[in-house]
């Protein structure tokens, strides 16, 4: 694109190479060689912070121009067009920047509704889960027979023991598998909750 660092001392160019290539490579290599988890985690954290700062810096660059990366900011380097600008030629540098800024902004504006929708979906799910767990309330959701979360949960009418429908049905009698036989009738938890809710509505 005919863009280069023009008119800067080799020292500055070398400095940029050190900061952008050598330092990240060496720190990564050292943490890898040390094999320490805390160092690796710290390195990842620093890298994430640097990436975020770079992104913010780039957005700032798109809006206002100037240095395109942090390193360029520190060393006050700048890309210039190799061709000497003439009065008749258009300054494409600014136009490109403007174009990128608008593309970036449009992408954000376009994707925001989708992100928002996804977020709302998650929030709705969490609300539903909270509501369901509060309705279950005192019930232990583990089956007393198989010790796993009850599938199609049934609950003892008085004892409140929870069991899967399949675990209850294998005994051929719809009674609590834990309490003495033929004493505690089991009923579906869903039905009980529904009845309970209707009861609350009636009582109000
Ligand atoms: Zn079970
Ligand atoms: Zn029971």
Automatic annotation (TrEMBL):
<keyword id="KW-0576">Peroxisome</keyword>
<feature type="domain" description="RING-type">
    <location>
        <begin position="143"/>
        <end position="180"/>
    </location>
</feature>
<keyword id="KW-0808">Transferase</keyword>
<dbReference type="GO" id="GO:0008270">
    <property type="term" value="F:zinc ion binding"/>
</dbReference>
<dbReference type="InterPro" id="IPR001841">
    <property type="entry name" value="Znf_RING"/>
</dbReference>
<comment type="similarity">
    <text>Belongs to the pex2/pex10/pex12 family.</text>
</comment>
<dbReference type="GO" id="GO:0061630">
    <property type="term" value="F:ubiquitin protein ligase activity"/>
</dbReference>
<keyword id="KW-0862">Zinc</keyword>
<dbReference type="InterPro" id="IPR006845">
    <property type="entry name" value="Pex_N"/>
</dbReference>
<dbReference type="Pfam" id="PF13920">
    <property type="entry name" value="zf-C3HC4_3"/>
</dbReference>
<protein>
    <recommendedName>
        <fullName>RING-type E3 ubiquitin transferase (cysteine targeting)</fullName>
        <ecNumber>2.3.2.36</ecNumber>
    </recommendedName>
</protein>
<keyword id="KW-0479">Metal-binding</keyword>
<dbReference type="InterPro" id="IPR025654">
    <property type="entry name" value="PEX2/10"/>
</dbReference>
<keyword id="KW-0833">Ubl conjugation pathway</keyword>
<comment type="pathway">
    <text>Protein modification; protein ubiquitination.</text>
</comment>
<dbReference type="Pfam" id="PF04757">
    <property type="entry name" value="Pex2_Pex12"/>
</dbReference>
<dbReference type="GO" id="GO:0005778">
    <property type="term" value="C:peroxisomal membrane"/>
</dbReference>
<dbReference type="GO" id="GO:0016558">
    <property type="term" value="P:protein import into peroxisome matrix"/>
</dbReference>
<keyword id="KW-0813">Transport</keyword>
<dbReference type="InterPro" id="IPR013083">
    <property type="entry name" value="Znf_RING/FYVE/PHD"/>
</dbReference>
<keyword id="KW-1133">Transmembrane helix</keyword>
<keyword id="KW-0812">Transmembrane</keyword>
<keyword id="KW-0863">Zinc-finger</keyword>
<keyword id="KW-0653">Protein transport</keyword>
<keyword id="KW-0472">Membrane</keyword>
